[in-house]
From TrEMBL:
Tagged with keyword Membrane: yes
InterPro entries in the record: DUF5351, HSP_DnaJ_Cys-rich_dom_sf
Pfam families: DUF5351 (PF17302)
PANTHER family: PLASTID TRANSCRIPTIONALLY ACTIVE PROTEIN, PROTEIN DISULFIDE-ISOMERASE LQY1, CHLOROPLASTIC
UniProt keyword Transmembrane, yes or no: yes
GO annotation terms (biological process): photosystem II repair
Protein name: Protein SPA, chloroplastic
Gene Ontology CC entries for this record: chloroplast
Organism: Rhododendron simsii (Sims's rhododendron)
Membrane-crossing residue ranges in chain numbering: 48-68
Lineage start: Eukaryota, Viridiplantae, Streptophyta, Embryophyta, Tracheophyta
């Protein structure tokens, strides 16, 4: 078939009249076949929320220990000058058995009393503060704990 005019006549045994195509042009080069494009991920709202919560949980799980470690390190570098609360910075606490007198009075009955030296403080009336170990400075939280291996 030759194309010489802008008006093309096509004769076919299946058509009762000739088919006229005007402004018909054939491509001069071959076109590449088109491939199906890959669509973007089709995610619903629940999936997006679940993934976001998972990522946030991992970030928080990693971030919190790093934050506390940095706070512990910076606190260890600062001087501790806070006076001990239980002993008011003196390093000694009043004996709880003799109430600081150094002696214990026992009522024997019949108006008889026995006064003896306190066996808890050995008559001193005070004991070394168990919180600050006699230093008078309030220890930091982790310094108050003794980590013993009981094996």
């Amino acid at each position: 078939m030759l194309i010489s005019h802008s008006l093309l006549h096509i004769h076919s045994p299946f058509l009762s009249c000739p088919l006229k195509l005007s402004s018909f042009s054939l491509p001069t080069h071959k076109t590449r076949p088109s491939f199906p494009r890959i669509k973007a991920l089709d995610l619903d709202q629940n999936t997006i929320v679940a993934v976001s919560v998972g990522v946030a949980s991992i970030a928080i799980g990693i971030g919190i220990p790093f934050f506390y470690e940095s706070q512990i390190d910076s606190a260890a570098k600062r001087d501790n000058t806070q006076p001990c609360f239980p002993c008011d910075g003196s390093g000694a606490q009043k004996c709880r058995f003799c109430l600081g007198s150094g002696s214990v009075t026992v009522e024997l009955g019949g108006n008889e009393r026995e006064v003896s030296r306190c066996i808890n403080c050995d008559g001193a009336g005070s004991l070394t503060c168990t919180t600050c170990q006699g230093s008078g400075i309030q220890p930091r939280y982790l310094d108050r704990r003794e980590f013993k291996d009981d094996d």
